[in-house]
Write a structure and sequence with these properties.
The chain is of the alpha+beta class and 126 residues long. The protein has one helix and six strands, in the order αββββββ. A hairpin with a 4-residue loop joins β1 and β2 (54-59).
C-alpha cells in the first residue's frame, strides 16, 4: 500500500509539471494562393528552380513566388527557358502549368515568398 501511494504521488507530480508548460503555438495559417496576371505580356522576369518540384518565379515588379509542382518536372533545373500554359486566361496560378522541353509540369501551389535560397556551388567573387 505504501508503494502504491508513492507511485500515485509521483504520477500526480509529473502530471502537474506537464500542466504548467506553456500552451503550444497555434498552427501556422495556410499560405494564400497567389496569381500573376498578364503572363503573355512579359510579366515573368526570371525563374529559378531549386528542385524538380519547386520553382521560384519573379514578376516584373521583382516580387518572388514559390511554385510547387504536382510531381517532378525533369530537366527543369537545366532549362534555359520556361513556357507557361494558363489554359483559358493570361493569369499564372495554381491551375496553370510550366512547359519544359515539351513536358507539361502542372502547378499545385503558387504562393508569394521571399527570394529563393542561394544556389549551391557558387563562389563569392569580390
Amino acid at each position: 500500500m505504501k508503494q502504491l501511494t508513492i507511485l500515485i504521488a509521483g504520477a500526480l507530480a509529473a502530471s502537474s509539471a506537464f500542466a504548467a508548460d506553456p500552451p503550444a503555438r497555434p498552427p501556422a495559417a495556410p499560405e494564400r494562393e497567389a496569381r500573376i496576371p498578364f503572363v503573355g505580356f512579359n510579366s515573368i522576369r526570371t525563374f529559378r528552380p531549386v528542385s524538380d518540384e519547386i520553382v521560384y518565379v519573379q514578376d516584373q515588379r521583382r516580387n518572388w513566388y514559390r511554385a510547387t509542382l504536382v510531381g517532378p518536372c525533369f530537366n527543369i533545373q537545366s532549362a534555359l527557358r520556361l513556357g507557361v500554359d494558363t489554359r483559358y486566361g493570361s493569369t499564372l496560378d495554381n491551375s496553370s502549368s510550366f512547359i519544359v522541353d515539351g513536358q507539361s509540369c502542372r502547378i499545385h501551389s503558387l504562393v508569394r515568398s521571399e527570394a529563393p535560397p542561394p544556389r549551391r556551388g557558387r563562389r563569392n567573387r569580390g
